[in-house]
Design a protein that fits this description.
Number of strands: 0
Helix content: 40-55%
Largest sheet: none
Structural class: mainly alpha
Strand content: under 5%
Order of helices and strands: HHHHHHHHHHHHH
Shape: elongated
Number of helices: 13
Distance between the termini: 54 Å
Length: 319
Amino acid sequence: MGRTPCCHKNGLKKGPWTPEEDEKLSRYIHAHGAGNWRNLPKNAGLQRCGKSCRLRWTNYLRPDIKRGRVSFEEEETIIQLHSVLGNKWSAIAARLPGRTDNEIKNYWNTHIRKRLLKMGIDPVTHAPRLDLLDLSSLLTSPQLNLPSLLRLQTLLNPEALRLAMTLASTAAAASSDDAQILNSHLLNQTQAAQPLQANQFENTFDQQIPPNIDDNSFQYQPMIQDNLMPGFGYSVPDQVRADFSENSSFQSMNINTNTNTNTNSSNSNSNNNNFNLDSVSLSSSSTINNGGGEDERESFCSNLFKFDIPESLNFDDFM
DNA sequence: AAACAGTGCAACCGCTCTGAC
DNA sequence: TGTCAGAGCGGTTGCACTGTT
């Protein structure tokens, strides 16, 4: 038997709040202050449970609640803090004045999470996940080097490869050569498919790491590491970082993105990372006007999350 | 114009934490 | 130390609104 719901009492109303109820609650709290939520509805003349009143007040009626769109800086902060704190919405909300944990949670689930998934980034770990990546965008990219991509075979799961094959075979952009390569590769992989022992996987994975990849080019890492792309828990090649940084207002955050290309792996884990929780600026140096038009907003979002492959990005860096 | 699908968000649910006794 | 109530938290749901067919 579960706990009896707090509103499971006769006569207690549930569902959306009416303006009259809001008025009653606001007036009572202004007069008597918040607290003692159990007795509050009775004293305020509300047919609601205390919990419902508390939620209504903290998430909606509180005078310091900031309504309106989430600003550019706020979104950056949410992503950055989430990469560190995870789903600690209240902790994240504490660093965004006027925003509630519920609002941030909703914004994450409905906006940011979807965009990260589309980019192939695991919204939980902030690590790149090739099996989540929007393969259609990859396959239509002029930078796509299909044979190189296939060298990632064990990083892609079979379903992703299958999907890639389907997309490649149907996309007009895909040449018949590419489709053939994919097809034969998939066939080979299917035939060779056997359960991997743990050590086999390790060996297989090692073999996938190209000799030219080094600590400064592409790293799967824990969250707080040197060379991290702001907002995402993984590293990218310096050139990509430069391309991204040039066009991104992540510069507005106190994060050192100036990785010294002469820095070798021996010291790359040390002091280049200036990010810490306290460094996240909450000031609105260039806050987008909340009243800005949809186009403006869309532009910002697409710049922030667009996963266009930069001209300068060589796929071989990842292979 | 109607039906349907997708999206966003307020509100709820149930579990956990905390402090008083 | 154990119990209880109040409060806080994260996950989920339901519904209104919007866009598409």
